[in-house]
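Convert to structure. Protein one:
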Amino acid sequence: MIIQRLALQSLRNRLGTAFLTAFAIALSVMLLLGVERVRTGARQSFADTISGTDLIIGARSGSLNLLLYAVFRIGNATNNITWASLSDIAKSPDVAWVVPLSLGDTHAGFRVLGTTTGYFEHYKYRRGQALAFSAGGPFADLFDTVIGADVARALGYKVGDPIVVAHGLGSVAFVTHDDKPFRVAGILAKTGTPADRTVHVSLEAIEAIHVDWQSGSRPASGGVTADAVRAMSLTPKAVTAAMIGLKSRAAAFKLQRAINEYRAEPLSAILPGAALQELWGLVGTAEVALTAVSFMVVVTALIGMVTTILTTLNERRREMAILRSVGAGPATILGLLVTEAALLVGAGIVMGIAGLYCALLGLQPLIDRWFGLYIPVTLPTAYEWSLLGAILAGGIVAGLLPALRAYRLSLADGMMVRT
């Protein structure tokens, strides 16, 4: 207890320097824990990109390729699924619902997705959270469209604005479906998923805008008008992929095997969760770099603490000599400086944790709304406590260097008046 009181009194006498040192450690702790929270939040948000969907089916392809174009709107399908095959699979007694997906067009660089209104009911993210509308609602008319939050923000759209879909996937629209314009019927709330960057239209609308096209080219003149196409049968002949929900998840592997062995045409069925984990294994290496940078910042702060103690040590030679002269042994001097280092690091850890939670409480809604990244405000995990323990231990070890130097200072050297 005597050493602790001496250390506290010594730090109180150097309050400004001690506070700045502890504050630097606090910032490094905030960064380390903040990166850890963002890392785990990003991993969880990535895993929760699609939730509640038991299977995704598409043409025969690799699981990652199917996941990328069906969920993330990246890349292209190797082939389509015929409507007859999809209808046959939907009749399985294990299937609760099917949401078809049709890709192939764009608008201002954003992918256009043809689907049904069931998409807004069954597509879930973040452990079962449903899509919500910030304005308007699902499409009710043939040429209605629902746009994601990023599309609305980037292009400045609001409900009622017209949209012209471009044919193909190029970033520059050379051919457009300007004879059949759409109207914005709804705008989705921010989700942090690919739905934010998607223009949603009905499957029938996808058929309607291509009804008079031949081999990917629009008719030379004339063509079916928007009013005339409403009277036509617009059941699609094929779709790009489909999301499937099952009555019981226990049937997922059985139905997956049946689809993969489907005789009518070559198909693939994937489990979204397993495919997402496989994809994260490829793209998640950046989190290692972020953690490494955070540890380097912590090490830098500890080095700064050691430098500060060493810098003031020369000015404290007389203090050490007086302590030695009144009976303090070398072990006491050693313990004093190690205790000071521990107190500085401990104060920095406490300030860092407090600062982190203040930042989380204030910024969590904004981060969720702007970036769709949900960072829960929870107590530190066991891993985070282990990180904090490692920082405290590292600070104590770092404090040994100036402590050993003070230990070697002789009484005579300390009492000597230097000129």
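Protein two, convert as well:
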Amino acid sequence: MHCPFCRHSDSRVVDSRTADDGTTIRRRRQCPHCSRRFTTLETAALMVIKRSGVTEPFSRDKVIAGVRKACQGRPVTEDALALLGQRVEEALRATGSAELSAHDVGLAILGPLRELDLVAYLRFASVYRAFDSLEDFEAAVAELRSTRDAAPEPADAECDRATRAD
């Protein structure tokens, strides 16, 4: 690490702490040449291998932009999109892999998007999974219906039904 003041090629770490988000390490360093202190922030690089073979850094903003297109005209807030982007990044970092395929990124997006908005999920899945026929959409809708019907109802709904029956 070069000193930003005198450009000396070495520095000594005085203190290390994780930053607020937990994905960054903040280090206080001191230059042995000029004795001045400075701070560095270190993050682990998360790289995405695209279908073409090109590797590029992961971008949460790119995830949000893609999901925003799927959410056009839907009642989805910017805060919800930001939270989805954070959840996707956390899920990808939790894999422990420094390089992920674009396919892995798409899979990580589908789960949180499905919870956020089903119509946006279908829009995104139709592009991501390259739907090319009506049958592809029908299969996706049937899958959503079967998982929705299999999910247990919230306790409130059972209480409402019992109240109506009385």
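Residues 24 and 52 are 30 Å apart (CA to CA). The longest strand covers residues 12-18.
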